[in-house]
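Task: sequence design from structure.
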């Protein structure tokens, strides 16, 4: 999905006392970002979910300024490329999640590179999914600490370079730590948060601000959850996939609680911004379609899928495919319990964090806006803009121009245009039930013309379209080489 000018995305911590009035820009806080995979918007207690329990995410919600109309891409790698650069995924060359089209162009300056230039130390824990070949790996794109799996999910492997360590699992996963594989112990989400907490603990005594990017592969399929989390939903009558999906979400919540508790214990809440979001809409296989009966209570009452009343799920250009939570918490600096309904998007994340840090991204690269004025409660002059979404994922070797008018949407503050001839007023019809294209033809014409201009400027930047499939899988090769040269050391989780 895309946008017109720079916008702002931030996440901070709550302040029960009066808020400090110093400008947020250039304030140089620590930043901790938690991004989940396929959770979507509705799978959260505070967003009205009828049975899932997320007490820790709920307390983060209560302590945060929340962006209620924050939009991303329909799938994961595109969203992540926008977060790292401040521009539309297709302008980063990312038009798919596999087949060499998930690789973030090497011409881009990444957010961690920009932060490193102004004295930040940076780390990633979990999912990268912007290229498994060495030049694209996070330790070569600005991260000082990289603790990641390969591909788009633990254990995935495709007939291209996109492939995790062979035979990997959500339990006791093999993780690539700064270019070397280690054998971990435990469930993957627990492992990633433990690694992040250990790193944050090591940084807090130093004089450098830090940026920690915790990117869980949960609750992406396969739907494997710790037994205690999974069994709760099996007792409710959910099938294996849904019990695993919801179990993973509640396990994420437990780990968010660990994070929030440690930040408080270490007196970091007034110096640290905390951001929470997801990468795309929720998934049908795990969560079900809106209103679908997906289980029964022990008393025999039906349990129905919940997607916050939105149309569409992951992979869709409807609202439900691209709307996700965005919570920003910063104790003493950002107002708790406030909702911002101004339209914002993933391209706004990097310029927002860069503005907080006093860092600079190339202006010709950045399409988003710093969201700091909205975070501070002072929108001022916020020019209207269009945001553009395209699902991508056309066949390998196809000409993208042949797919311009398929699976696309245009969004402004009021309307969503889906394809050429479906127009919805999102302020009165969030479920997209009434097509207004015939009643508002001028809106349709304006959106189509803007989209066409955007596409013509975007097509030359789709640099991965003719890339040959890699004959090797870099993670497989590196893993096997390390096994021959001495094996995998055990990684010991810090006791948090």
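Answer:
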């Amino acid at each position: 999905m895309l946008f017109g000018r720079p916008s702002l995305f931030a996440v901070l911590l709550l302040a029960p006392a009066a808020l400090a009035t110093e400008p947020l820009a250039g304030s140089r806080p620590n930043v901790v970002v938690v991004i989940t995979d396929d959770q979507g918007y509705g799978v959260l207690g505070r967003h009205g979910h009828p049975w899932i329990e997320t007490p820790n995410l709920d307390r983060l919600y209560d302590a945060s300024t929340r962006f209620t109309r924050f939009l991303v891409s329909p799938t994961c790698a595109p969203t992540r490329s926008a977060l790292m650069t401040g521009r539309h995924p297709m302008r980063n060359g990312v038009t798919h999640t596999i087949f060499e089209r998930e690789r973030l162009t090497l011409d881009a300056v990444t957010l961690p590179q920009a932060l490193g230039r102004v004295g930040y130390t940076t780390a990633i824990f979990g999912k990268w999914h912007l290229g498994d070949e060495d030049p694209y790996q996070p330790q070569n794109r600005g991260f000082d600490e990289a603790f990641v799996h390969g591909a788009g999910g633990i254990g995935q492997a495709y007939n291209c370079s996109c492939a995790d360590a062979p035979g990997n699992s959500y339990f006791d996963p093999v993780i690539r730590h700064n270019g070397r594989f280690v054998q971990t112990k435990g469930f993957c989400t627990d492992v990633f948060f433990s690694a992040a907490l250990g790193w944050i603990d090591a940084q807090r005594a130093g004089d450098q601000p830090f940026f920690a990017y915790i990117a869980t592969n949960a609750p992406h399929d396969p739907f494997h959850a710790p037994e205690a989390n999974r069994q709760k939903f099996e007792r409710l009558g959910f099938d294996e996939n849904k019990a695993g999906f919801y179990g993973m979400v509640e396990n994420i919540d437990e780990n968010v609680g660990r994070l929030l508790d440690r930040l408080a214990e270490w007196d970091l809440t007034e110096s640290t911004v905390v951001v929470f979001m997801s990468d795309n809409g929720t998934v049908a296989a795990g969560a079900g379609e809106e209103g679908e009966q997906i289980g029964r209570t022990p008393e025999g009452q039906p349990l129905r899928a919940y997607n916050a009343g939105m149309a569409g799920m992951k992979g869709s250009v409807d609202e439900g495919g691209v709307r996700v939570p965005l919570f920003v918490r910063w104790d003493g600096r950002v107002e708790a319990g406030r909702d911002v309904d101004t339209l914002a998007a993933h391209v706004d994340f990097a310029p927002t964090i860069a503005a907080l840090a006093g860092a600079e991204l190339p202006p010709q690269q950045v399409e988003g806006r710093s969201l700091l004025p909205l975070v501070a409660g002072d929108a001022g002059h916020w020019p209207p803009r269009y945001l553009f979404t395209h699902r991508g994922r056309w066949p390998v070797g196809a000409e993208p121009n042949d797919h311009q008018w398929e699976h696309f949407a245009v969004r402004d503050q009021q309307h969503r245009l889906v394809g050429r001839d479906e127009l919805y007023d999102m302020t009165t019809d969030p479920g997209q039930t009434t097509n207004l294209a015939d009643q508002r033809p001028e809106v349709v014409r304006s959106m189509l013309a803007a989209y066409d201009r955007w596409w013509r400027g975007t097509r030359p930047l789709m640099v991965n379209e003719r890339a040959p499939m890699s004959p090797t899988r870099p993670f497989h090769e590196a893993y096997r080489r390390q096994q021959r040269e001495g094996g995998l050391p055990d990684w010991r989780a810090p006791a948090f």
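The longest strand covers residues 30-36.
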